[in-house]
Amino acid sequence: MLQRRFMVLSQIWMFNVEADFKGKQMVFKKLKWRHPIEAITSVEITKTDERITLNIIFDLDTQNLALVEEGHKKIKKVKRKLQFPDAQTSRDFLFHLIRIQHMWGCSRLGKNRTRLAVVNKLE
Predict the structure, then answer these.
(1) Taking the CB of residue 28, how many other CB atoms lie within 10 A of it?
(2) Which residues contact 23 (CB under 8 A, 6 or more apart)?
(3) Spacing of C-alpha 16 from chain mean position
(4) Among 23, 58, 67, 122, whose CB has the most other CB atoms within 10 angstroms?
């Protein structure tokens, strides 16, 4: 389903924020969910119906430990499906996701020092 959402990446979190435009002004409405960047274990890339899909997989224990430490509720979902209208947009998002996850994993704070696995199923 097409939704007006902004995927916001910080150095620690990936947020899904419901938002809209009023004229030229962007208005954030509601935070739908958040996942810690350090909990991402892999990304699977597929193409369906002229859209590029990124299936982002999270480690349940790492994600919930980070959420609880920051005062948020645990969540059971370990897979998020993001669809993009074109290859360039999905590539840009994936580049930044990998860059931030790698930076997190290489920092002294990072408990999960594994490299993000990207599985390309476009072929």
Answers:
(1) 12
(2) none
(3) 8
(4) 58
Residue with tokens 């430990």: 65
pLDDT at 97 over 70: yes
pLDDT at 108 over 60: no
Strands 40-48 and 117-120: parallel
For residue range 62-87, what is the model confidence (pLDDT) as tens digits?
999 999 999 999 999 999 999 988 88
| DSSP notation for 82-110 | EEESSHHHHHHHHHHHHHHHHHHHHSTT-
Q: Is 101 exposed, middle or buried, given 0-12, 13-18 or 19+ CB atoms closer than 10 A?
A: buried
- The CATH architecture assigned to 37-120 reads Roll (2.30)
Q: What is the dihedral of CA 84, 90, 96, 99, to 10 degrees?
A: 130
Q: Which two tokens stand for residue 68?
A: 């609880």
Q: What is the mean pLDDT of the chain?
A: 85
